[in-house]
Structure formats: C-alpha cells, structure tokens
Amino acid sequence: MKKLSNYKYKYKALFFCQSLPNKISQHVPPLQYQKPLLPNNCFFITYGRTQVFAYTSHASQLFDKMPQRRDQDFKNVKGHEIFELVNIVKEKPDTLSASQVHGLALKVGMLAYLPTITTLLIIYSRTKNFSSSLTLFDEIISKDVVTWNAIMTACIKNKSFGLAVNFFTEMVNEGKQFFDSATLVIVISALSNMRDLRKGLVVHCLSMKMGLLSDTILGNALIDFYAKCSNLSSSECVFHEIECKDFVSWNSVISGCVYNGRPEKSLLYFKQMVNLDKGADSVSLSCAIAASACLDEFSCGHAIHGWGIKLGSEESRHLSVANSLISLYSQSGDVDAAEYIFNKMEYKDIITWNSMISGFALNGKISDAFDALYEMQLTRTVEPDAVTLISIVPLVSEFMLLREGKAIHGFTIRREMGAELSVMNALMDMYFNCERTKDAEQLFLNMPKKDLVSWNTIISGYSQNGRCREAQSLLNEFRSGNSKCSLSTLLGILPACDSPNSIRFGRLIHSWEVKLGFVNNIILVNSLMYMYISCGDLVASFKLLEEIAYTADVDSWNTVISGCTQNGHFWKALNAFKLMRLKSNIIHDTITLVNVISACGNLELKFEGKSIHALALKTSAGQDIRVHNALVTMYGKLSDVESARSVFELCFYRNLCSWNCMISALAQNKSSKDAMEFFRLLEFEPDEITMATVLSACRQLGIIRHGKQIHAHVIRSGFYQNAFVSAALVDMYSSCGRLDIALKVFQSSAERSIAAWNSMISAYGFHSNGQKAIDIFHDMIDLGLTPSKVTFINLLTACSHTGLVDQGYWYYNRMLDEFGVHPSTEHHVCTVDMLGRSGRLHEAYNFIKELPTPPDPGIWGALLSACNYHGDLQLGKEVANILFSLEPENVGYHLALSNIYVATGSWKEAGELRDIVHIKGLKKSAAYSLIDVGFY
C-alpha cells in the first residue's frame, strides 16, 4: 500500500471484493452456484481507495480441463485398478497417500505408462513436494505434450514461474513434440504472474504463427495477461478479436479494466455484456459493483445489486458478490447495510472479514472494528493477515490508541509477519502519530528490508515530531543510496524546514522539486509556500503564489494566510486576504475565516474583527463551529467579553473547544470567577486544555482551595503527565504562596516541557530567589533544551526583583548570539525595570535611546515608574512628556508624575497636573481585594 504521509491526519480504508475462477464459470449457468468456491489463484486490483481481490485462470486448474491422451491399454486388470486409484488420490492428495500409490505403481510396473507417471507428477506437485515432481519428470524417457504440460503446471502451482518458461523453451528447442494451445495457456499463465510483457508478446506471435488463436481459452488467457502487464489496449484488442466470447472472455476484460484503473470502461463492458443477453455471473457482478465503488457511483452499484437479486442471486450464497457489496455499502456510508449482508453470509473468508473491518474503520466505528477483529479470531476458520492489519492500524493511528497499537505489533511478532513491509510501515506511522518516536525508529532500524514507503514514513514522522535534523539527515542518507525521491518524500521532508536556520535546506528541496518535474503539482507548491513562510522568507512565498496565480485555488491562498498567521505575520495574513478577495473565482472558506479572525485578534483590531464577523454571517462558512470558536477567542483577546459571550450563546452546536475558548476568554480578562462558573457548568468531560485554563483562573483568584480540587481532578483523569498542565499547576501553587508544592509538582512531572521550566523560573523569581531561578535556567540548558522568549522574560524578571542586575544584563546581551532569541518589547521592559529598580536611571535612559526600533510606550512607562520610586524629578518630567505625546489618555502616567512632584515637594505642579486629569475626565480603575470566605 502506498502511504500518503502529508495529509493532515486523515486514514485510508481498503476495500476488497472477490471473484470466482474464470474457467469454472463458463461451465456453470449464471448465478447457480450453491457453495462458495475458494481457489488460490488470486490477485489484487487497486484503484483509488478501492482494492479488488480477483481471480484468474491458473494452469494448475486448466490442466484438469485440458484434452488428455487416451488411456493406454493395460496388460492386466490390476493395472487398471492401480491407475484408477492414482486418479482418486489426485482429487484429494496428501503426502502419505501419494507415497503409497507411488509404491504400488512401482511394484506392478505401472511407471512405464505415461498416464500413471504424469498423474503422480501432478499429485506430488499438489502436496507441495515439488522436488519429487521434478525427479519423476527427469526419469521419463519419452515425454509427450501432456507430460510437458503437467510439469509446467506443477511449476506454476509451486510459484516457480521462471522454471515453467524454461521448460517451455526446452520443449520447443527439442522439437520432438509439437505444443498445443493448452501449452501456450500454461506459459501465458506463468508470464502473467511474472508480468513479463516482452516474452508474452513472443508467445502471442507464436500462437498466431501456429494458427491457435481460434482457441477461446487461449484468447482469454491473453486478455488476462495483457491486463496484468498494464497493457489494457492490447487486452481489449485480443478481446475484440475473439469470435466466440464466453463468460470468461467478458469477465477477463471487465476485471482487467478495474485492475488498470479504468472502472468506467469496466462498467461499459458490463453493460454491453448484459445487453447481449449474456446474463451475468458472480464474477461480472462483483467486478461491476467494485467498479461502481471505485467511481463513487453508489446508485449504480445499488442498481446492479437490485438487478442481481432480480435474476435470482442470493448474495449470502455468492461470496464474491457479497464481499463486493460489503465494500460498496461501507464506502457509501451505509455501514448498517454492509453489516446486514455480512451477518447473512453462510460462509465468510478472509476478504469478507477484511471488508467488514475496513467498513467499520472507514465509518468511524472504532469499537465495532475491534469487535469484528476479535470475533474473527474466535471463529478460528480464518486468521488475520497483512490486509487485516493495515485496515485496522490506520484507525489506531488516527485516534492515537497506543495500547491497541502495541497489541497489534505484538500479534505481528507472534505470527512472524515482520517481512510484511506494508504492516511494518503502518505500525511505524502509528508510533509516530502516538508521539513514540523512539519506538518507530527502532522498528525502522530492525526492518530487514525497506522500500520507498518505509523511508517516506520515517522522514515524515521525524518532521512532524520536531526531529528536523534527523529528518534532513535521513533524507541525505536516502539520497546517497541512489534512490529517487517521490512526491511523498518531498511532502514529508518540507515540515522539517520550519525556521530561518533551515532555509538553505528548504531551497535545496525546492530545486529537487523542479528537477524531478513536480513544478506544476499544486499540493507541493502549497507546501513550499508554507515552508518559506515558516523560514521567514515571505518574499519567496508570495512570489510562488504569484507564479501560480492562474491555477491557484482556495487551498493555495489558505496556505499563505494560515502560514502567516501561525508564524506571527498577522498583517501579511490580512493583506493576503484582501488580495484573495479581489479574485472573482476564489471564494473564502472556513479555514480562511478562522485564520483571518485569529490575525485580527492577535493584532487587537476590533473594527476589522467585527467586519470579518459580519462577512462570516453572510456565508454558510459562518455557521461552522470552528469559526464560532475563533470569534470567541478573538473577542477574548480584544477584551470584549460580552461579545465573546454572545457568540458562545448564539452557537447552535457547541463542542468542548467552544467551552475552552469561552473559559480562556474570561480568564484572560480577569473574569476568573465567571471562568470558574463556566467550568462548573461544562457539558463535556474536560481535557488538558480545560484544566490548564481553569488553573490559570485559580492563579488569578489566588484561591488555593479550588486549585487543589482541580489538581485532584487532574490526577484522577491522568492529565498530570501533560507538560502544560504541570506548568499551570506550578504557576498556580507559586502564585498562591506554596513554592514547596510547586517544586514537588515540577520534580514529579514525567515530561518537563519548556513551559514547565519557564513556570519554575518564574516561581523562584516571584518568591525573590533570583539565584535559584538562574540555577534552574542552567539546568534546563544542560539538558539540551532551547530557551524561548518567555524563558528570558521570566529570567530577567527574577533578576530584576532580586537585584541581580549585572547577571540579568549579561543574559540580555547574550539572548540572540548564544540562544537565538530576538529581544522583544517585553525583554526591553524587563531590562529597563531591572536597571531602574537598582537606581541606574540614566543607564536605563541610554539603553532606551540606543534601541534599534522606536521604543514602545510600555518601555518608557517602566522608566517613569523607576523615576517615581527614586524621586528623580528632572528625568521623570522628560520621560512623562514623551509618554503624554504617545498615550495622552493614559491616566497612570499623569498620576506617576504627580507622585514624583509630591515626593519632591512640588505641590503646586502636582495640583496643576491633577487639575488637568480632572478636566480631561481621566479616571483610574478602582482597585479591589478578594477574600476567600469559603462560600465561593
């Protein structure tokens, strides 16, 4: 199976249908089988999401139908009895009976007769004792055409196709025996299994030269041969040249069309067959139903089902038809109908079970799929095979059912299925989706053989799990083996290029894409645009969008808009949306709106955000729950809690994400009490995000009693292993004055993320232990973790609160060079606050003046607070005048300067400033205190 690694998490189900053997159907009236037949001669037909399990004529079965030599006259009656006994054993051979009749024939001298020794040759072949067949053949002195046909049949039965062709070559070279049409049928069967088109053409020419093409059986074999060799046009030509077409002729071309990805042609031939009053048998019906499933023409499939019932078909008695119908109804979403057919079936084979399990998986019925797998093993008539496992593993992977996935892995080990590449690749993908990178890596290293899908899976898995360097290294190793990259390879590696440091490698991937001829593949171009945005090269991304302007679809525009939004380029996202709106052939969808709304929220653009809200209401996309959730989050960031609440209440259908967005919006806007109330009314089982958000509300309220209750719920739910929940617990306990409990939570965390380390650094800073915060920072660095922007904000704050000015200033100066973190406004505010608290006001002033970009008002505000604290009137007045020009309506700056006037005895100036505040009508928000009296 080919793995499609870069589709965001969607799984692919397989469908199977089965056909009866072609040569049997020509001798039996249509739809008259009373017992399902189970031949071994099978092959897979794959088209789109459908995989057809079909049958073709094998020489091993044809041999019994061929004209045999006339029985020779035996010298005594006993010879006739031995020969009859040999023929009886041939029908149901086993090793013991084969040896016994061989001994009897040898005792009475029957091995001198060709019919006897030829039949023994076939018996040994059918008991998997191929070496004895070869030995017997070598002992025959005078061989006739039937003997040669028998040994070639034995070769095919034992999958020695090349040896069968060699025997045919030897037979022709000897020139003592003329081959017949049956010989050519056997050779064509061998070449069909070998997919050897060149030699098949030679045999076809030979049959024309000998005038044997009038034989319908040979013609049918050639139809099947060309179809298997992916030469459908030649297959159709042979079909049209057959004068007397039988059921096998029609079935061969119908199944051949499905095999070659032309299900529409398959249905056309089926219609022609029916119009010629040929009727239909189980083979043609099952192939036609499978073709309908391939084309998603479910109504057509239903009509064929009804027509089969009208002809007297009982699907429960026709295995191939029933299997096809299970796949059809499962794919159309009517899994109840598929299950009804499944339950009615008197006999179920491996394909039946696989089809039903795939149907449950496709329709999201997880428990039913596992129940069917369990029931299948209880029957003990069939055992799960590779197809069963690759039907169920994607389901395990999508829903991250690690326990079930490990159980399936254990099953493959017990059944020694490690050589099944498709199963190993599916398991590797499952481990990556379950974030068990080490397990997937171990599986890859222990695989005895690897194909292109194996490499694509591990490269994509590393990329999606943040192991970018390993993904790039593996790609280089893969390329060094002279292996060609596929589209899936390129799509899998591109997510590994997600930072400015990997832009060079990303450009190399782009050049490979051009070299390999994928320049017009819209999916790959979209991925390249996202890669360039993630690496910070927006110019290259927009240039690519411009190059595909005529072929770009809504997904292309969404790629750019979402890429800009997720990487913090919010203005660029809004500009791209404006350009998209100018395209008359492009209409925004849910993904567009979600990302544009998010950009407005992050930029705090209230007017633009409401405009997008109005635009969403005009289209059907505005009714999507994801848009509603994005609007709630946006209004929360805009501090418009009432609008957020209105959107939440007007939403007809709410999921857990809706509640999380509303609780978060309230917590962000200091409405922690309301957030706790919403949590109490929650209609769903809370998840990790809910817990982290509610713990943030507890931290704001400073009520440790509620925080402990949430902590207990976290432990019962098993969320304590989540890194973000652990970080929220550390924040909550440290804010509530319990640094000791915060430390215990941190130390007991199974997996410490950057968020957890940041919380612990902040906790020590909050409790005036700056040196311990610095020690924690170095412990984090020693473990190989990369500090983030928040890490340095917490570290600088800790240094500021504990007077570690020189250490803090040292870390600020090395943020970019040593750790790759660009200083932001928050870092500048912390540094100014740190210098100001220690009385180094003029140094802080010079620091602000030397900033490469115009300083934010918050930076000047930190310096004004320091001037207020140290009573520096002159510098305070200068800084205050700058702030009055930047934010004239901010009452806090006026009051800070007024306090400086009072501290220095300038009562007149303080009074004048307060009069100005009164005249402008500026008011300071009233402060309040909370007391937990045990009733809230």
Account of the protein in words:
This protein is an all-alpha fold and 936 residues long. Among the domains are: 752-811, no CATH class; 831-920, Serine Threonine Protein Phosphatase 5, Tetratricopeptide repeat. The chain is 68% helix and 1% strand. It is built from 53 helices and 2 strands. Strands 1-2 form a two-stranded antiparallel sheet. A hairpin with a 2-residue loop joins strand 1 (42-47) and strand 2. The chain is elongated, with a radius of gyration of 38 Å. The relative contact order is 0.04. Mean pLDDT is 83; it is low at 1-61.
What is the secondary structure topology, with strand pairs?
Layout: H1 22-25, E1 42-47, E2 50-55, H2 59-65, H3 77-91, H4 95-107, H5 114-126, H6 130-139, H7 145-157, H8 161-174, H9 181-194, H10 197-209, H11 216-228, H12 232-241, H13 247-259, H14 263-275, H15 282-294, H16 298-310, H17 319-331, H18 335-344, H19 350-362, H20 366-379, H21 386-398, H22 402-414, H23 421-433, H24 437-446, H25 452-464, H26 468-480, H27 487-493, H28 503-515, H29 522-534, H30 538-547, H31 554-566, H32 570-581, H33 590-603, H34 606-618, H35 625-637, H36 641-650, H37 656-668, H38 672-680, H39 688-701, H40 704-717, H41 723-735, H42 739-748, H43 754-766, H44 770-782, H45 789-801, H46 805-813, H47 815-819, H48 825-837, H49 841-849, H50 857-870, H51 873-886, H52 891-903, H53 907-920
Antiparallel strand pairs: 1-2
Helix pairs in contact: 2-9, 3-4, 3-5, 4-5, 5-6, 5-7, 6-7, 7-8, 7-9, 8-9, 9-10, 9-11, 11-12, 11-13, 12-13, 13-14, 13-15, 14-15, 15-16, 15-17, 16-17, 17-18, 17-19, 18-19, 19-20, 19-21, 21-22, 21-23, 22-23, 23-24, 23-25, 24-25, 25-26, 25-27, 28-29, 29-30, 29-31, 30-31, 31-32, 31-33, ...
